[in-house]
What does this fold into?
Amino acid sequence: MKIAVFHESFGEIGGGEILASYLGRALNSKVYSIVKDENINTLGFEDISQHLPLVAKILRRFRSFDYLTWSNVDVRDFGDYDVVITSGLTARALITPDDVMHVHYNHSPARWLYDLWHHRRKSKGWLKRNVLLPLALEFFRIWDTAVDKRVDYYFSNSPVTKRRLWKYLKRDSVVLYPPIEFDKYKCKNSEDFYLFVGRLWHEKRPEEAIRGCIKAKKKIVVIGSGYLEKYLRDKYGKNPYVEIKGFVSEEEKVDLLASCKAVIYPCIAEDFGIVPIEAFASGKPVIADNSGFPPYVVNEERGIITDCSNPDNIAKAIEELEKKKYDPDKIREFAKQFDFSVFKENLWYWLKRWYDEFSQNVR
It folds into this structure.
């Protein structure tokens, strides 16, 4: 099989981009994408922007038109492929030749259209006042359902996204957990600080983590970038318990994971969340929200589950964690099942199995 990976348009590096790079490595394949800022393309994806027709080139910088942009990408411009794997919600709008198998790696159905829609509408004042937005999003739900039919087979990154995919689009999928490179992580003696890792978005709840640490009078180091970064720096940058580093190198992130006391992961109903797995590979416990995938992996031996919507709960979890002793070796052992070697083996198994079935159907 000759395989290519196409990842959705992106303007910053996050878990989805890292997963796409792992797909490329596992398959010895190029990763094509529409790069909105070449300065952040540290993963070396091949930018296909110049292959777009004029209308798609004009609209490619607008997220709302990503489905249209990807519908105009012709995979035959890049090679004679047997299998195309798309990663990221909008890339599944690709229209592949009828003899090319299209597999999509599902990070999650569009959360802003489905399970997080009411949360966002109620939590942001301007959304409450916008009378046209509900109508526009209903149109996007129809569009989302239409492009879904272009996918032949689905991977999902966790049982949570597998359930959402069936609930909202009635599609079945195989769970393939995102990988880590286990040997890259190390465990050091814990220093007296907690760590938040992730995009600085409302759904990731970085402010709740910060406020929880301030209430517990414990230092927190925040790494990540996003639209909340300036707000958080302005509000908490001078607080003695808060250090906001913003974007850091992979090496610095690994070092901070190795030396923190624990990771705070308060995200709302996270689809998978690689951060807790990285924390486990570093021998560190995790304080996580009681929604989404984290409760599948965080237990009393590896951390604390609580309602992270309230910083008081995070503060109480910190106080509880301070009283407990965790076994770093046992925590690290659990993380080995997420190693890249396991991911690669399972990926190839299902691609071969699906391709045999697909080939029979298209003869």
Observations:
- The longest strand covers residues 3-10.
- The mean pLDDT is 91.
- The chain has two domains: 3-111+147-179+339-362, 182-337.
- The first helix runs from residue 15 to 27.
